[in-house]
Amino acid sequence: MSTSEFNNAGVFVANYRISHQLAGGVSLDVSLLFSTQDKKVVGRGAVTQATNPPLDVKTELVGEYHYQCTNNSCFVMVNLQGVDAIRARILPPISVENVDAHILLNDDFKTGVANFKYLDPRTNEWVEENQVPVTLADYTEISDVTKLAEEVSA
């Protein structure tokens, strides 16, 4: 399905990097499909960190988003839950939650801030990351995100 077919169906692709951009820091990269018809989001993500041993958490994401306005500004709240991408494909599938993300995007869908937590497979403990900058990845078509922002705010 081409990008224009997605847009005609009310589905838009957006890719984000959620990171403090620090060497050796944790990053969450997500590729998301936004549906303007039912306000649902699906996608894939990866939590990575260049450490030894390296962190690499693959996740299948589902969630929803809401357009909200206050007296001063409008924003988009995206709530995502992730399950282990590998275990989700095993037959029978095993659902193991490994990511929980709350992303607050500016109403142009290009920047924002996120709080997320992930299940670290090295320690089997949940790790929280707060107030992490969100930026639109350079491989997202800006025209798609602009159209998405227009449709959501209409």
Q: Would you kindly provide a written description of the structure presented here, covering whatever features stand out?
A:
With 154 residues, the chain is mostly beta strands. Helix content is 12%, strand content 56%. It contains 2 helices and 8 strands, in the order αββββββββα. It has helices at 3-8, 142-153, and strands at residues 11-19, 27-35, 40-49, 55-69, 74-84, 97-106, 111-120, 125-136. Strands 1-2-3-4-5-6-7-8 form an 8-stranded antiparallel β-barrel. The radius of gyration is 16 Å and the shape is globular. The two termini are 25 Å apart. Mean pLDDT is 88; it is low at 1-6.
Strand content: over 45%
Strand order across the largest sheet = 1-2-3-4-5-6-7-8
Question: Outline, from the CA principal axes?
Answer: globular
* Main sheet summary: 8 strands, antiparallel, barrel
Q: What is the string of helix and strand elements?
A: HEEEEEEEEH
Global mean pLDDT: 88
* Tally of individual helices: 2
How many individual β-strands?
A: 8
Q: What is the C-alpha radius of gyration, as a whole number of Å?
A: 16 Å
Distance between the termini: 25 Å
The percent of residues in helical segments reads 10-25%
| Structure classification | mainly beta
* Low-pLDDT ranges: 1-6
